[in-house]
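URGENT: need a sanity check before tomorrow's submission.

F., can you look over the Orotidine 5'-phosphate decarboxylase record below? I want to be sure the sequence and structure line up before it goes out.
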Amino acid sequence: MSKTIVALDFSSKEEVVDFLKQFDEPVYVKIGMELTYACGLEMVKTVKEMGHHIFLDLKLHDIPNTVKGGMKNLANLGVDIVNVHCAGGIAMMKAAIDGLNEGAKDGKRPMCIGVTQLTSTSKEAMNNELGIPGEVIDCVIKYAKNAKEAGLDGVVCSVHEAKAIHEACGEDFLTVTPGIRLASDSKDDQKRVATPAFAKEQGCDYIVVGRSITKSANPVETYKEIEATMSK
Ligand SMILES: O=c1ccn([C@@H]2O[C@H](COP(=O)(O)O)[C@@H](O)[C@H]2O)c(=O)[nH]1
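Structure tokens as predicted:
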């Protein structure tokens, strides 16, 4: 399976279908808030019918009972990955897994991963706005260990933390890393960024790439170049 997950940050079905029609092979895609709030979970069905793999990035973060109920209803959509915010705590993450297990009709639940610190968060913002002292890496490792204790399958983190997470939580614990930029790209709103080549070097399991591919003059070519780097 592809190591590059393409973020479908579009607001209409037409844009998604036109974008995906350019590819002659199944792509691993990410459906997040923008698309879901515009088109509903119906988009999961549309994209699945086109043959693609899906990371449903809704980042659940609520009291355990609510997250459990939410996950129960996401369990049978046929997506490969769902996620929560690790900041919701261990009880909430355990509830997410319980909900998925309860909801999965065939006994096979999607993988569930936890967002550690958003890749758009800098050390300064984490310290001064979120009120979490210290280095980002320490918070990310703590959250990753919590996620593992809760039974999650991995985490979302930046490339810069992936190696330390594998050391702390094991090589089988998934690291899914957004904040990917080509050397010539602008960082936009992202803070903890890295190139696909550095992600490969750091042992990231998957990279998540949005604008570098979707806004490229030739999205398929850019995707193929990035995926070739990741699959070397
Ligand atoms: O920490 C996180 C968690 C999720 N994302 C998501 O990944 C893509 C990145 O898009 P780019 O255009 O490549 O910046 C986007 O859908 C985010 O919601 C993240 O960036 N960081």
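My own read: The radius of gyration is 17 Å. The longest helix spans residues 136-150. If you see anything odd, call me.
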